[in-house]
Amino acid sequence: MEAVIRVVLPMLDDDQLNHLISELTRIGVKTDDDLQYLTSDDLKDFLSPIDCRKLIHYFKIRGNENILASQPSNRPNSSTFSVQCHGSSQVTNPSPISTPVPVQSAAWVSDFQIPWGKMTPNLRTCLAQGKRPEASDRRHMVRVIVDSIREVCLNPTKRQCSEVAQSIIHKYPNSFSDKTEEGELIGCGYYSLLCQLKTRVEHLNRNNTMARLRKPKRTGDEVDDSQPSTSKSAKLDSYGCVNWNPTELPERETFDSLEMKRQEILSLFSQEGPRAAERSKVQELMKITFIAQRHSINASPPPSISDLQARWPFLFTKRFLCAHFKELTGIDPDTRFNDSLCTKGERIICFFKNLQSRWGKEVRAVLKDIDREGRDVDPGLAAVLLMMAHFKEKEESLFLLADVTTTPTDAETRLSLPSTPRLIMLGDSVLLSKKWMLSIEGKVLFPKTDLPDFSSAFAVLFGCYYVLNIEYQVEAATTLEFIQRFIVRINPDNSKCSSKFQVSKISGKMVQRKNSGLNPHVSSFIKEFLDFSWQNY
Length: 537
Hints:
two-stranded antiparallel sheet; 47% helix
């Protein structure tokens, strides 16, 4: 039972695991097969809602596979493997199979054994020492694993590859987990390995049409009346937040008393304007009305930015937007951006410079501009521009250039301000800008007087997506996710850009967008950057 739970929830600490197992024993779980009958109510006191769903989903799939495996089958017997990934000294190599035989049941994955004995000596040494393997050794490992999988299943599904990846991460977390430099998991922790496994499978099946898994195409006239229609529930933008929709009122407060405090806030703003943000009274009122602010922001239908500004004017100042972000996510954006954007920015620039021959013309052009301007360049801004060039995202998807004398009124009348957040860069070039404004929904909400430096300006820009429930615009989604996961270090499993379509960077046409839990371009870059850092610093 413990091993099964560890595979699904590898980050569960020992105390949580022991409490969970004790409770499962108390309610009558005796074997692994009993786990498929659990409900969320059985686990809610011990796990978060997402962990509950993961565990129950896995148990039900496992139970169905066991039922299928117990039914008679005419397929040839394949080699038997162990569910646990063993070290090389414990490997029992399967008997050779001359022709790969696809398995009809998905039960093979629960019996699969990683053939560690076939791995390179360098990789086995790294695993024994808990170190990250070289990229070439990791690629060889993926090829060996996929070849072994295809002896029993020609085209494993993404879910099956996910289980294999989870078992590897569980046994060797230090060698294969997707982590930040600070040791925090990126997303689920095994996404890059999963992508490598599935990509290798698809590569081997590229000319084998019999092994592909495809659903038959349906015409517009085909309707399955036997299936009930389902309505799509509204998405809750709780992505990475710890206090997205609070329910507990402050002590001695009611919603009526909080509304009176909101009216007091409006009165102070009307009398003194944004300058009143420095008053301790306003700071106290804004802190105690956090729950009311969240209820206004999370209302259905969603309010416009103008409506929110009318109800909570101080929320559109740097001080209180950052304070709200900290309460919402548990992270101080000022501290995180000041500490990380500059230091990590310098190392990102170094990374691109050291491997300059590998990059396309967009990255090389930014590097040339950085070298030409020298010390006048803010390393955080330079790093963001390099990442946008690397991900082939245009500067204007985040930054708009304007003359240094531009006022908020000028920007609103002369510039084409989009609905999604933009930093208006005041200067001769984006790279050399020294003053900034921020616009949302075609209106300048944060003037240059409220944004003293680029770290502060970018902290406010990024904070708006969380505080105001704004999804990443698809044109800059990859760069924003990189900032979120690598700089701010918010790493949920899902994505904050749910757009189903985007403009192709190759053809320029509107195409369907692949949505995944973790952007593969972000995962790949972070892995490559960290491998470079570990080898050179």
